[in-house]
Amino acid sequence: MGTAIRSSGMIREASRLAAAGELGNSDVIRLLQIPHSKEDVQEVLRTFEQQLSREAKSKLTLDAFVPPPSDVDNERYEPLFDKYIITGKTYTTASGAVVPNELQYYNGQMVHLYGECSNVPLVNAALAGSGYRPITLKYADGRHAAVAQLWSNKFTDTSIRPYAAMFIVVAAVADNAPESQASLKAASNGASSVLVMLDGSFDPATAVYENKARMYMFRLLDTTQVAIDVGRERMGTDKRPGTIDMACIGRQLHLSIKDQHRRGVVQGDLALTGDSTAYESVVAQAVKTAGVTLQALPRGAECVYPAVARIGQGPVVCWQWRSDVAPRLQPVMPGSLHFDRSSEEGRTLLAWGFTPKVLGFFPKVRGVITGLADQTPRCARDSSAACEGMANAGSRLRWGASEEAASAQSRLAWNTSFLGSLKVVLRKELVGPMADGLRGNWHITEGTFVGPGHDAVVLPGAADWMHIRPDGIAIVNVRACFETRDRVRVYGAYGGVADFGPDGYARALRGEYDQQISAVVTPTYETADPRLEWLNRVQCIGVGKVDMSALRAQFDMYVVRVGERAQEASSAAAQSPIPEQIITAVERFRAAIPANFDPIYVEKVVIPFFLTNVYEGERPLLPMIDLNFSKENALPRDRFGLIYRDWKPTPEEGVMVFLQGLEKRGENNLRKRIYFSAVTPDLYKPMYRAKVTAFFDKLLDQKFADRPFMQHYLDHYFDLYWDLHLGLVGSDIPREVREIGKAFNTVFAYRDPLLPVTYQNYMKVRELQDFLK
After folding, report:
1. How many Å apart are CA 569 and CA 572, to the nearest integer?
2. Spatial CA neighbour of 676 closest among 629, 623, 620
3. β partners of residue 525
């Protein structure tokens, strides 16, 4: 009975207001003050759809989706939300939650801790491959610091319901941005870290300010699953569960943030200032030192902060945070916050050397997220129907996504079959920091490999000759020999990657590791026994975990077959269905490839690299080319694109000895054999000595002391090479030749095709290939 009265009251009032014409903002606000249910709102939307203004529809639609919390001030009617409306379209998360398509924040409190990181290389490594790099502060005494921020938010009213969140943010610019945009001169007063939020452009005509710096969302903790799902699926943010305790009592702000395992990230108490203008002169001094222009914004100006986000090595997602409120700024007192290394987030901030310098407090925060694109097809519906059919949206959306997925399936037939489980016990042997990362050997003290039809042990001498890159990714390099019960020996070589976490390199230097480390490997096997000869022909993939406390590892290995081989294997024997963990491993591997990489480069270079094992042994003391030591097929597949336009050998363009052995290239090629005798004194002295001596004199000149050697060597190497072979030196050597040579050597030096420097130089070689012809 009560519901009927409320419904009739809202409908009667709507009918009365509609009699005068359009139902606008003020009319709808009046309607929403009347006690009502979701069904009441649906009826108003359906009955008066033609008379409702755009803004009025938005308010009603939002109320039907997410009624305002009863214990929170209603801030939903601010002008910002009339500009960015709720359309009635929906988004269904992977967990099945149906939410408005628009992401908006109506009330709550926000804390920004603006600071600087002393470990600039480690922050750089955290952003590596994303296309962005951190903005740095340059002090007069020569110190550099990366600009980072820690945000804590308590959202009491949002379009996805109340929740709290923590953000670890790095102020960033594009990799190719000029140095003038990538760094700021820092003042000694500690206020320079906030300048990245104040340096932008303001359009008086639209009253919109847009920030220059990008906010790189490195890691987030959220308190609700729907917030985590929306962030990971739509915003590309690495959101994880956590608890955020943020309470403001008078002028005392208490902050305590923990991860999902209740391990601390940061905690402390901050005394809020009573004078929001007291810090303005300090900021003004930092502005003057940096030489930036401080924009004077009118009250209520819309501020746009472009953001970029990425989960692991996945694609970069761009969007914008828009708000019409500004923070109150004040200094952070030293010792007021404690960072806890028991959590991954706390360790990351400590490893970066993060020191908060400036506190920005929003006593009432509001804003909207714009620029989001649906990651999967979603059902777009008008506002009146949206409130009616939310219960059925999930099934429709999943059906639409399935249709698209079906049309986008791979055209290549492939399958996997279980090969066996590898279990090993490890012994750690730390080598130390090297040019390419931290070297450590993991010796296998005992191990078994058990699978359908075979049972083997790992023979002594097996090990993983691993190195951990500065970004926390470990490159697996296993060499092992197995012996079956029948005394058959099988040699195995495993490449692959293991993720030690963003701060994994710094922690490994201290001997600290997560308890469980996941890894994906790409084994190949070799044997002389005819019964297992088929192993020589297959590529395998393995997924597993390493228990760093017990020093034990376990991997499940699968044979991967493609095309006709897959069809033959499927018809020859009953194959296991494709294991879900293999599908996940492949998807994760592809997600680790930077989104800006050329798709052909991915297929022709990245994938072959990680599916290829290269034996690394001692360098033989033999002639460069000899009939008894063929280099045939010595060039890995992922290098073909450096030489051939079609990414594969084409005989009409020539075939080098690294692809076709000298013994197969005809009699005329025998003269190309180069022996050490080619540099005997009687030949060397008249033809080469003067040129080689001049090269070393220039290379080892005292003026180059204490400078990086390799770049200097490569610069002079081209002069020696061209002088010896063609008698050309200096400017007679084409600029393009030097460029392609430098890029070619860089690819071979860095090796890993996922590194931006490798990709950029690989594509530079391909860009200049036609010139060399």
Report:
1. 5
2. 623
3. 492
**What is the C-alpha to C-alpha distance for residues 61 and 58, in angstroms, rounded to an integer?**
5
User: What does the pLDDT look like over 269-304, one tens digit per residue?
Assistant: 999 988 878 899 999 999 999 999 887 889 889 999
Span 536-543, mean pLDDT? 91
- For residues 126 and 503, give the distance between their C-alpha atoms in angstroms, rounded to a whole number: 8
Instruction: Please give the backbone phi and psi of residue 74, each rounded to the nearest 5 degrees, phi first.
Output: -80, 110
CA dist 241 and 227 (Å) reads 10
Opening angle at CA 37, ends 36 and 41, nearest 5: 85
Chain-centre distance of CA 737, in angstroms? 34
- d(CA 59, CA 29) in angstroms, rounded, equals 8
Q: Is the pLDDT of residue 400 over 70?
A: no
Cβ count near 57 (within 10 Å): 23
- pTM of the entire predicted model: 0.53
- 25-32 vs 54-65: helix axis angle to the nearest 10? 20
C-beta separation of 48 from 41 below 8 A: no
Distance (Å, whole) CA 327 – CA 152? 13
Residue whose tokens read 């990657």: 497
Cβ atoms < 10 Å from Cβ of 124: 16
**Residue keyed to tokens 């219960």:** 391
| Backbone φ, ψ for residue 750 (5° rounding) | -85, -30
pLDDT digits (tens, 9 = 90+) for 429-483: 999 998 888 999 999 999 989 876 677 899 999 999 999 999 999 999 999 999 9
